[in-house]
Amino acid sequence: MLREQEFVGDNFFDEFWFWDAPDPTHSAVRYVDAKTARAENLTYVDSYTNKFVMQVDYEGKAVPLGQTNSTGRKSVRIHSKRLFGDGLYVIKASHMPVGCGTWPAFWTSNKGDWPVGGEIDIIEGVYNSKVNMASLHTLDGCMIPKNVSTIQQGHLDRTNCSYQPGCASSFSDKQSWGDRFNTNNGGYFAMMRDTQLGGLGIQVWFWPAFVDPQEIPLAVSAAARKAPGTVDTVVDIGSFGAPQAFFGADMGSKSSCEMSKLFHKHEIIFNIALCENGSQLSNARWEVDYVRIYSAGAGTFFF
């Protein structure tokens, strides 16, 4: 059985730290610390909805790239203070960043020398994407078999998980990304990670917000602070249906991807990167209803 814990509203400020170092992906942003983000309203909790909001500075003037101490427009990147291993990761979001050059992501990664310990991208894409893409990044030695396409709803785009660009599957549901996602008031994503020897692998699901909550697993759709206290990895996850993305299970020493060796405990990360210094960025924001984790423990503090 896995036990639930949840991040919602002001709790994000307690459970996440703000990255303010240069962007490792070299995008056109300057990530700011928590004090700056809150003072300049780049992150806050909506007083009416209790949603946690993160956004790009679309009002201030972006410092052109190439100048001394300039790295583009102010933005937000947050990391969980705890590290989590195998379990069920759920996010309900009402809005994701869109606009010229936006490159948002919700992902998990080992804290260390990337990609040692692996990376799992649950929500990711650039501003002109049509659907969401889930992907893995590992050290050499992880290949996803092509026949997983028969078990998932999405399309397997890349099979080699090593480094960049990693293995990836694009979702079949066009409501999973961008303006369509936002027009429908968002939706629910769930990622099941079972990377132990002989485990079920890594799977990602999506449900648009307009789907009847009774047709979505309660561990995913329950309102903030009203979710079941535990889930069973076999019985409960078995009712989720076919995932949008499925990255094959660890089959032992003869496996094409020994996940038990390649994936360590991860931090949870949100960010909004930019491919360019675009000006049409008033909708480049996350609105997060909650993040919910079901795991064997409360997570390991490292920050």
Automatic annotation (TrEMBL):
One of its GO terms (biological process) is glucan catabolic process. Pfam families: GH16_XgeA. Residues 46-299 form the GH16 domain. PROSITE patterns: GH16_2. Gene3D superfamilies: 2.60.120.200. One of its GO terms (molecular function) is hydrolase activity, hydrolyzing O-glycosyl compounds. InterPro entries: Beta-glucanase-like (IPR000757), ConA-like_dom_sf (IPR013320), Glycosyl_Hydrlase_16 (IPR050546). This is GH16 domain-containing protein. It comes from Malassezia vespertilionis. The lineage of its organism: Eukaryota, Fungi, Dikarya, Basidiomycota, Ustilaginomycotina.
